[in-house]
Structure of 4-hydroxy-tetrahydrodipicolinate synthase:
Amino acid sequence: MIKGSIVELVAPTEPNGAIKYQSLEALVDWHVVEGSAALLLGDTLDAALDLDAEERLELLRRAIWQAEGRIAIIAGLSADALETSLEFAQIADEAGADAVLLTLPTTPWPSTEKILEQVEVVAAAARQHLIVRSSAQRIPAAVVEAIARIDGVSGFVDCAPDVARARELRALPLPEGFALYAGSDLTTAHFVLEGFAGGISTAGNLVPRLVRTLHDAALSGDRAKAEALQPQLRTVLDAQPADNVPRAVQWALIEMGRVEESTPPLALAHARDYANLRRALRSAGCAI
């Protein structure tokens, strides 16, 4: 079971979409040092990153080679078509990913039968542990329980915004070793304090140590420390422009010296975004 902060990594790219592999490898090393539990690659956060099968394989291979077992690498399988998810699962197996994550489709929202059928097919095809994520719908608790009982499924990511949902899922008779994860940085502290194994983080791209420290506090039951860190994390999240988080993350990483500069230089949509991000990251202790 993966426990702690799972960072949904923004892959560093050139303006033409080519991946900056040297920067990717440096980011993997950085997350190892900062204590992130796992990196999620190629899922919904990087939806604009249009990779063919060969490029996706290379992305995973380079990350896994650099990780050298020091940090778990999770391959995203999200796609509108089941056939593509199965292709991605094969690529993840060939690359040697530690786990795979399937984000359920949001439009059109499938029936319960279709959800379970899709998860069963992907779980049967995947060689790694499968984590399932629902990002836009509150799936009935009974369906989460049914997903948890499918062979090969080892975890579920829930993106609901309230702690009552965490308690509802924790009360389910889930199989031993099945992990629940928070789907948002905004709920991680409270969900992990309720017994979740960790959470998926976008803020971890920029402040991995802060996110890891919050997870560690919550996992150890230190409510006061975890809740004290949450506002600091919220400041970083609020500073990221909602219309293009991956671009803002890449710009900030360049400013922090974590990713090499692009040619032409990366620009954000609004002048205020630069100041907001700089202010938030400085308040979180980043040199920017």
